[in-house]
From TrEMBL:
Pfam families per the UniProt record, alphabetical: LOR (PF04525)
Protein name from the UniProt record: Tubby C-terminal-like domain-containing protein
InterPro entries from the UniProt entry: LOR, LOR_sf, Tubby-like_C
Domain of life: Eukaryota
Protein family according to the UniProt entry: Belongs to the LOR family.
Organism, as annotated: Cutaneotrichosporon cavernicola
Length: 206
């Protein structure tokens, strides 16, 4: 199967909608399956920017330096308002945990990296509507070019990275994020950014 067909297959895969929607930030749930595209912009002074688009429309922007201690990545809406500030902490020599907080520092979610063949994250948060605890699993596959987000075994989102010669030459990255109906697009965007950080860790230490 060609790379184009493999990418298209992942982007067109149909995900079952959630019977009960989950969200951290109300207003970012769609009634239909949605695909977002992440465009990695030119890195200046080691700062990275992802523009996140739905079709021709900008939805989010993620900016910041690699998540070492004291560094912060911000995910903002189209108007520049911060939705999440993502920080990292170390639980051991190589294991890291990531925290997503709001502008005033209140923790909204936590993603803990687990030992696995490839990046694996356990994500916990309280649903914004019900207050019930939610646990998600993010697992990378296929030389870390793809990942699935699952809730109780159901796939609710897919990350797929393009890996073309132009990406290698320009040191840029492009991700496609497919999200099931009833799932918070802002949270899935944050998890895709964290997954990208975990891939960097695995490449550096592996």
């Amino acid at each position: 199967m060609s790379k184009d067909k493999h990418k298209d297959k992942d982007a067109q895969r149909m995900l079952d909608p959630l019977d009960t929607p989950i969200s951290l930030i109300p207003g970012y749930i769609r009634d239909n399956q949605t695909t977002l595209v992440f465009h990695d912009k030119v890195i200046a002074a080691k700062e990275e920017t992802f523009d996140v688009d739905e079709g021709e429309t900008r939805v989010f922007r993620a900016t910041g330096k690699p998540l070492k201690l004291k560094n912060i990545k911000r995910i903002a809406d189209v108007n520049g308002a911060t939705l999440f500030k993502i920080t990292a902490s170390y639980q051991g020599t190589l294991q890291r945990a990531f925290t997503g907080s709001n502008e005033v520092g209140e923790m909204l979610f936590r993603a803990e990296k687990k030992w696995s063949w490839g990046a694996k994250l356990q994500v916990t948060f309280a649903d914004s509507k019900t207050g019930d605890p939610v646990t998600l699993i993010v697992k990378g596959y296929g030389l870390m070019r793809t990942a699935e987000v699952t809730l109780d075994g159901q796939v609710i989102a897919l990350f797929t990275r393009e890996f073309w010669s132009k990406d290698l030459l320009s040191n840029s990255k492009t991700y496609h994020l497919t999200v099931a109906a009833g799932v918070d697009l802002a949270l899935m965007t944050a998890l895709c950014i964290i997954f990208d950080e975990c891939k960097f860790d695995d490449a550096k230490h592996g």
